[in-house]
Amino acid sequence: MHLAPPPLFRPGPPRPSRARRAAAFGLGPTEERYSVPGGGAIVVELRVGDRLEVINDEGGQRAELIATHPDGRVDCGLLGWQGDTTPEGLKAALLRGEPSLARLRLALALRGIDLAAARAIGLFGAGSRPGEAVSFAAQGPGWAILAAPGGPMDFEAQDTATPLTLKLTRAEARARGKFDLPDPLADPLQDIRVKSSTAEAYVIKAGEFIQILDVDGRQCTDFQCFDARKLDRGQVRPLDATTTRTLMGHNYPMPGLHAKYYDHDMTALVEVVQDTCGRHDTLGLACAAKYYDDIGYPGHINCTDNFNGALDAYGIEARAGWMAANFFFNTGIDDHGVVYADEPWSRPGDYVLLRALTDLVCVSSACPDDTSAANGWDPTDIHVRSYAATERFQRASAWRPTPDAEPIMTRQSAYHDNFAALTADIIEYKGFWLPNSFPQCDPVESYWAAREGVVVMDLSALRKFEVTGPDAEALMNWVLTRDVSKLGHGQIVYSAMCYPHGGMIDDGTLFRLGDQNFRWIGGADEGGVWMREEADRLGLNVSIRGSTDQMHNLAVQGPKSRELVSQIIWTPPHQPAADAIDWFRFTVGRLGGPTGAPVVLSRTGYTGELGYEIFCHPKDGDAVFKAVWAAGQPLGIKPMGLAGLDLCRIEAGLVFAGYDFSDQTDPFEAGIGFTVPLKSKTADFVGREALIRRKETPARKFVGLEIEGQDPVGHGDCVRIGRAQVGEICSAMRSPRTGQWIALARLDVAHAAPGTAVEVGRLDGHIKRIAARVSPFPHYDPKKERPRS
User: How would DSSP label each residue in 301-338?
Assistant: First the structure.
């Protein structure tokens, strides 16, 4: 008799782990990938036999490719091609002094490359398809320069510059620890390699910058520093993580307002200026002998012992365990209070840039932990560079629009300097620095100015996409829930964009510029990715090109906004005048007169009031802001930041991604079921069948809540009837208009009727209960009479 094998038994050897990784994490030892932003350029090293593939990500983007010998001599023959054009686009951008090309100018100077008489290989054209690619083979060593040229976008022609991708396949696999470091941010003062499982100490003067780089990716580094003047006095005051968390109110500092590390005297030691990783730790000590002893690895090399050895020369007494800033460590605390560690998020070349706030003695390690996923199971090197105090680096964090995307550093909008002159409370939002509040005009004052007067705010972080081509209407009618075929020229419609299961990708507004010319403005880069994927899957003849960096928008909102914009926006006779455009329509004009900066003016907003948005190219942002600000002075104009905007939009029932909806929420559950005209829109669209089913058998409903008393409630708080949870808070605020706490919530349909008594659970959801009642939604101007006025 033979027994059957257990159900999980598989004959043969074990199978390797095959977790699917984001593109940058899945690169092989011979593979490299670079992104060239529209209007930008990069330099990469060439070796004999390397293969290059240039990819036109979104289609319609020209490319200029130049090759040079190691000594800087231009010779496109290194790629097996002859230069057939002059790199006019790249030279024009360098001549304009584009800030985004500062690193390129430094790279060309370091390599002695002169483009004055250069010839280039011209690639692609206006008709090139998304994903179109051209390949080359390197015939010898040298450098390759790839540019995605483009000037300021014509808003009506929609000729935006878009990114290119360069895939580089090396003839020889990269050896461990030999990943090519990115070029220095400036001329370095120090270049220090911290070999795997070691530590190095170094001295930094006040004002100088420290760049700590992960060479191969997924490698952690502990960082510690000491006030050198205190050391001179015999006082050893290391960076203290507990003091830092307490003063900053964050698990770890990040670029922006909460950016400093302190010692336990509360002396600021360093400030985080740039961070391309975004995931670090201050919870644990640097790994120590006891840690390894306790898990069965006695005698294992550790960061604490390495610190002790490196710091001995500075007379710093050894410790059993060092507190540290643990850069690139991916740790957290789960719902049960357990500290966990997993693979780092850092990729090859990721870095943290610090500024010394006093003279310092520093020490950095390359963590030796090979017993866990903390270093991706393979400890490698760390690299440290320092730069002079006279250098200027913009504060920035890395933003990745999608998991597969290359990082984009936080950028300043066209209006950044204008708002920065009014406030220091500027925060990172989806890759942009945006004002949050103002010292002379707090969020409540901004709220009242929007309700009774006029405010100005920066909404440049909204994502813009130019959708053009013979099948543009067909695509938009397919990917949006609204009936695009009924949209007239100069008209705008608010719509949801859904996945096939009915969950929302995004919400936004669609502008119709022509028969087959549209502009989608939403909150997420995912919308553009999805449109391109669907267009490719269906074989549609349409181009979807991002224009977020070509169009920055200033919102002018409030009852007096019409009076303001009509004073500063000139329109030609064939376009509607600024004071004549209706709700959800737009016009094309110029600032101040027929020779002023070109602008697009739309009657849209996010406050629930009469309002407008002015779109312009970033080069014209300063002029637009100053015109708005000057015209607004007699009207009592106030600045509004994200905190004030939140008050207006919650009260008006305007939904916000990540709070009020996600890809697990359909438009009906997000309170915007009016964007899904299932009866009047006869054409099929993505998610239609799922939305029909969801509408017929709803499980949850988006409602308003009125909270009793003045206890605050917030996003994620549970809503209960008795012991049962029946929903959760999506967004909440204390209304300046009524003095009452109100909320937007999603509840089980059985308990969503107006007047239903519920409780909001705080603390653990049971210990503290706050009485509330279901109310009509939205709380303010439910018929939208004010924005229509």
Answer: --HHHHHHHHHGGGTPPP-SS---EEET-EEEE-TTS-
